[in-house]
Amino acid sequence: xxxxxxxxxxxxxxxxxxxxxxxxxxxxxxxxxxxxxxxxxxxxxxxxxxxxxxxxxxxxxxxxxxxxxxxxxxxxxxxxxxxxxxxxxxxxxxxxxxxxxxxxxxxxxxxxxxxxxxxxxxxxxxxxxxxxxxxxxxxxxxxxxxxxxxxxxxx
Length: 155
Hints:
By secondary structure, the protein is of the alpha+beta class. The chain has a 4-stranded antiparallel β-sheet, with helices on one face.
């Protein structure tokens, strides 16, 4: 329904710089509380959403999905849907995502890598940690021409 509404009013084609992270149970109250206390409503836009959902860590089997070590983690997402398509506003929200991610990361949280903000090669190496070499080998073996996900600049 949200997509239909955004298409009908033209906002679907505006930038919507979303941030998707994981926060461990031990830090969720302080992290989310801090972020929400400093989040101006305009940064979400009139139709934006904050989503906080618990997940059990143990059943997750994806080897490269980085989660905090807590048995219960939370997805903490800022679905920003600005009411304007101004490039400067989109850039500002992307930088706000970066700052929020750094605060989440510093509290032991992790990133779901579809979020809208730039990451350097060093950021990606830090994100993947001990499994970075495994990822690098897989990339070398299965994408020797480097045609898959070139915009992420992981390697």
